[in-house]
Fold:
Amino acid sequence: MLTRVGGGVFGNDLRWINDAITRAAALVRDHGLDLRIVSHGPVPPDLQELVDGSTPERGERPPRGARMRLFPTIGLFRPSRSSSQRQPELGMIDWKSTLREGILSGTLAGVLSAAVLLAAGKRETGSAVAPVNAESHWLWGDQALREDRLTLRHTLTGIVTHQLSTVFWATLYRALRGRRAVRSVPEALLGGIATSMAAAAIDYSLVPKRLSPGFEHRLSRGSMVGVFAAIAGGISVGAWLLRDRD
Structure:
């Protein structure tokens, strides 16, 4: 059973795929295989010509001994929509898996990086919540950058902002990865590091200053590196823990 996978989502030239099918048929010319091409929806003219025995570009006929037939049926051999084993179609985001990993990885990243924020804040400013409060500056302005006390207004807003941010980046990483599962610890680590670096680059170069994390006003550069390293670690651990569910 052959399909022209890659001719839609990935934009591969259909003529290239037709030629590849012809070459594949040539490789099995002496094996007596019954080759069938599955067509999704109406049969395109070029595919009909291929099955009938020639391609417009090369004028070649499928080799003898390798019969090719066309099944112009929609969803042939596709699992039932009611089946619990149904997989998302190629090129589509599996939102259930994406949100599951985004929430788990983002929560881990948020907790780990918040711990670094609190420790670094206590060491460098004398107030553990100072860098957390600073993250609320997008809502409360520069006052949040100077607040050292534990307050509902600044601290709670900062914690929620921080957590939502890490969940967002973890979810984006999972969505961009598509249906490809994490296969090894190094791959998980590289993905987490790349996501964290992208977050840092965008936060400090593309977004308006009012929407930057804010804790850069209270912490040293070394501590900031530690915060983003913790984010990378949380995203990596979450992706690794859910690897078998992809």
